[in-house]
Amino acid sequence: MVTSQFSMQACSGSREEALVLLNSFLPKAGKSYAEKRNFDLGSGQHKHVSQLSAYIKRRVITEEEVLRKVLSAHSLNAAGKFIDEIFWRTYFKGWLESRPHIWAQYCTDVQHLTHDLQTQSGLRDRWAAACLGETGIDCFDAWAKELVETGYLHNHARMWFASIWVYTLQLPWQLGAEFFLRHLLDGDAASNTLSWRWVVGLHSVGKTYLARAENIKRFTNGRFAPKGLAKVARPLNNTASTMAPKMIDPPNRYLDGHKTGFLLHSEDLNIAHLTHHSDCIASAVYRPVDTDTMLVSSPKLLEFNNATLDAAAKHWKPNLLNCCDVTNPEGILSWALENKLEQIVTPYAAVGNTSQMLEKCKHLLSNHGVQLTQVMREYDIVSWPYATKGFLKFREKIPKILTSLSMI
Q: What's the whole-model pTM score?
């Protein structure tokens, strides 16, 4: 798996658009999806998948909403493949949440490799050729250009791409994962990092994924028949820490009767579960900006992020009083002090960049007597504890999870 099986073509970022896409896809979520989901028909032709992943990643609509809709139209068995894909993202998030050191090691690796790109011309040239789609491998080059132009790749293409990047082009997987994160509209820390680790034999230890020409030819309807692909996919050495999984800590308790500010961020833009808190006196929208580095997010990704934030702020405007924008932890602290806040409440952010920002924010705020309260969804509370081993073990628990959430 390299992220989830959804696709993304539209770019308004609104909840209304997401619901239209969901309703139009519902008839296909059963047998049609199971039979056709693996075919990559090319840019603009990804009609056998839902086009929902960029919305689900930001929870413009939630996994729970999608599952309820699908199960209202299909049985659990009939829609099993599609439901599995929703839960792949859930599984990856839960798995990484208890192993944040994996994300920390990945970030450290990218920093070191960024330095290598600046100092090693051979590596930089091969990396640039791969990112620009100038390797001479027709399918790989087409996918690189599609990703940059559209912010999307079909799931099967992501797997092939990752395998070719590592085993044929002999490039570090971390730079490939970073290339995806800088362009994919639906990319998130857990799904992306762990999927690349899966391809190179670090997630399911020793089990790798090898892109094969005959498989590519079959599932692209003969559009590509690449030559010269690697014949062997040896697992990489696991250089990440072997620390044991940690318990997922419950967030701080919401403090009633305190001067409260609400912080909206793009990890969870559906705040229906928070609107019952009526003592918020100020609101802020977190809009991160890229740091000064050669690895920056694509304009298309930045545009979509801002579009979804704008759409969410408009949709939830009655609940967002005295709203302003903030771009970093220091700006959040200034906003809190200006409004004399005692507490900031925000949706829970799983391991990733936003989570790191909130952790820094938590320490800054606590020094000034302000509590940061992250509110975790029931869906995550129920699902994540089962993400302890491989996906097959997790999948066995899907009926139990659905029952706990009163979906079946």
A: 0.94
Helix (H) or strand (E) holding 323, with range, is strand 323-326
- State the DSSP string of 234-281: PPPP--S--PPPPP-PPPPPP-TTS-EEEEE-TT----GGGTT---EE
The structure tokens listed for 315 are 């949709």
pLDDT for position 251: 74
Give residue-wise pLDDT tens across range 7-24: 444 468 999 999 999 999
Single-letter residue type at 356:
Q
**Could you report the per-residue pLDDT of 220-229, keeping only the tens digit for each?**
999 999 999 9
| In the block, residue with structure tokens 């658009």 | 17
Q: Which residue has the tokens 């090319």?
A: 42
State both tokens at 13. Answer: 């970022």
**Residue in the structure block whose two tokens are 């620009």:** 132
Domains of the chain and CATH, by start = 15-97+382-404 (1.25.40.80), 100-219 (1.10.579.10), 260-375 (3.40.50.620)
Query: Is pLDDT at 136 greater than 70 in this prediction?
Result: yes
The pLDDT tens digits for 11-68 are 689 999 999 999 999 999 999 999 999 999 999 999 899 989 999 999 999 999 999 9
CA 166 to each of CA 92, 130, 224, 232, 399: distance values in angstroms, whole numbers, following the listed order: 21, 11, 19, 11, 36
In the three-class reduction of DSSP (H, G, I as helix; E, B as strand; rest coil), residue 29 is classed as coil
Q: Which of 57, 44, 38, 48 is nearest to 10 (CA)?
A: 44
**With contact defined as beta carbons under 8 Å apart, do 243 and 220 qualify?**
no
Q: Give dist(CA 76, CA 71) in Å, integer.
A: 6
Q: Indicate the length of the chain as a whole number.
A: 408
DSSP assignment letter at 310: H
Residue 169's contacts (CB-CB under 8 Å, 6 or more residues apart) are: 126, 130, 135, 140
Give the span between the Cα atoms of 177 and 187, in whole angstroms: 10
